[in-house]
Amino acid sequence: xxxxxxxxxxxxxxxxxxxxxxxxxxxxxxxxxxxxxxxxxxxxxxxxxxxxxxxxxxxxxxxxxxxxxxxxxxxxxxxxxxxxxxxxxxxxxxxxxxxxxxxxxxxxxxxxxxxxxxxxxxxxxxxxxxxxxxxxxxxxxxxxxxxxxxxxxxxxxx
Length: 158
Fold this sequence. Notes:
The protein is mostly helical and 158 residues long. The protein has one domain (16-136). Helices cover 56% and strands 10% of the residues. The protein has helices at 8-27, 77-88, 94-111, 113-125, 132-156, and strands spanning 33-35, 42-44, 50-54, 72-76. A two-stranded antiparallel sheet has the order 1-2. A two-stranded antiparallel sheet has the order 3-4. Strand 1 (33-35) and strand 2 (42-44) form a beta hairpin. Helix 2 crosses helix 3 and helix 3 (94-111) crosses helix 4 (113-125).
């Protein structure tokens, strides 16, 4: 296909971009605004002030929880960056710990304790395929993320 990414890292990056758009568009209200699950601030889904953040770290590019919808939700840039601090540094600031605690509460309330346990187990035990083995999977998923985003945009009139 023309203009397809060449490397596995490029596939992951481009797939994440489309996945993030899908997460934000599907969560947007009728005006296109997304609410941060950790602080409640609202920003338009196209704004660089709203992200698709992870509850459990997906720091590594090929994390098994990177594209798990129950692990990802809208977060304002500020909360997402603070949340990353708790995942990367063992001695995080109190503010960062509060953000992570609120995201955990959101996942428990929305999806249940069993789902959070499943995500933690998956993150800690599943070894993901890399390179050529996963490109086909990413190609299919990326097309689905684009389709879902386009459908949400059309349905919401965004």
